[in-house]
Amino acid sequence: MKEADIIARLRASRRECTPTDLAVPLDQLTDRGLSHGTLVTYFKQAFPELPLRILLEAAAWHRLSAGGLSDEGFDKLLAPHLLKEE
Q1: What is the mean pLDDT of each run of 10 residues along the chain (86 residues)?
Q2: Which contacts qualify for 4-7: CB closer than 8 Å, 24 or more apart?
Q3: Among 8, 22, 26, 73, which has the minimal tally of Cβ within 10 Å of its Cβ?
Q4: pLDDT at residue 1, rounded to an integer
Q5: Do 79 and 19 form a contact (C-beta atoms < 8 A)?
Q6: Which phi and psi (to 5°) does residue 16 adopt?
Q7: Positive or negative: CA dihedral 41, 24, 6, 29
C-alpha cells in the first residue's frame, strides 16, 4: 500500500477506531512493519497536530518495546489528541 493511502486510511478512521486499532494494522500495511519509527512517521503525517512528545512517549507501548505501556494506556495517551476537532 502506498504511503499516501495509509495516511488517508488513518485520517478516515480516526473517529471510529482506538489508537491501538489505528496502529496495529501498520504492521501489515507498511514495508517496515510496526515499529516506533513507523508509528511516528505515519501518525505525525496523518495527524500533524499530534504532539511529537506524545508520540515519543508512545514508544513505551508493549507492542513496540518492553516499556510496559498497555493497549489501554496507549489509547489513553493518544486518544485525547486524535479525537480533537480538526
Answers
A1: 94 94 95 93 96 96 93 96 73
A2: 6/30, 6/42, 6/46, 7/42, 7/45, 7/46
A3: 8
A4: 84
A5: yes
A6: -95, -15
A7: positive
* d(C-alpha 5, C-alpha 81), whole Å: 22
pTM of this structure: 0.91
* DSSP state, residue 33: -
The full set of domain ranges for the chain reads 3-82
What pLDDT shows up at residue 13? 93
Residue type, 49: E
User: What is the pLDDT, as a whole number, of residue 4?
Assistant: 96
Cβ atoms 37, 18 nearer than 8 A: no
Please report the pLDDT score of residue 85 as a whole number: 58
In contact, 62 and 68? CB cutoff 8 Å: yes
